[in-house]
Queue: 2 jobs
Job 1
Amino acid sequence: MDLGAPPATIIRSAGAGTVIFAGRVAGHGVVSIEHAGGLRTTYQPLHVDIAAGQTVTTGTPLGTLATGHDGCPAPACLHWGLRRGADYLDPLLLLALGRVRLLPTASP
């Protein structure tokens, strides 16, 4: 999922866990966090302010948003990912917003 935001926005952990990677991949700052239940979140591109091995809670700052995400229509975009094992999941599930439902449009 790509989320547009101003460059230098503080990016925070979506949940409690352990930072399993904090560094650069293909020239971009990346943070990966292992959460309970086998979930893993990833955040990129960042100016990383955290180190692998650190324990985080929900809302812990991970770094600031960097520019340079390909295909981003905003000044900067956070690429936010969620996986369980090899399966990619919708990271919005972590926000417990409920099921998405489409409503019919009103007739003219």
Job 2
Amino acid sequence: MLLSLELFVMLVLANGSPVVVARLLHNRWDWPVDGDRLWRDGRPVFGHSKTWRGLASGVLSCLLFAAWLGLGWIFGALFGLLALLGDLLSSFIKRRAGLVSSSRALWLDQLPEALLPMLMAWYWLPLALWQAVSVAVLFAIANVVVSPLLFRLGIRKQPH
């Protein structure tokens, strides 16, 4: 149970620290991961909101938290990286579907960024598959419920 809670916190860190760091640093170091390149369809690969700064802050926050917990910094770095790769994957799919950056796509916005790192955690740690999937689904539901509140508090730029 404690491990599941720790992994849930790591998902929050991986996906929340880029938002917090963006609010703190504004436009500093906000280089887009896709270099503002367009895909064959003429749309952005990921979009301007997916930055190297966000990728680095998400990976670093998970690395530090996992090391502090005794899970190891390599596990933390990979966990954070997979969470953010899942986020990039959902952005890529949304751009191909014609959705603009920061548009809402329920479940597509939440599940890839939670399932990818949780599948690695299931493989790496003494964690049952049902626990890994449960943490991912709980994170997705929490994200849908809490994001509008963070928007009202001025932490998020979008209510989703």
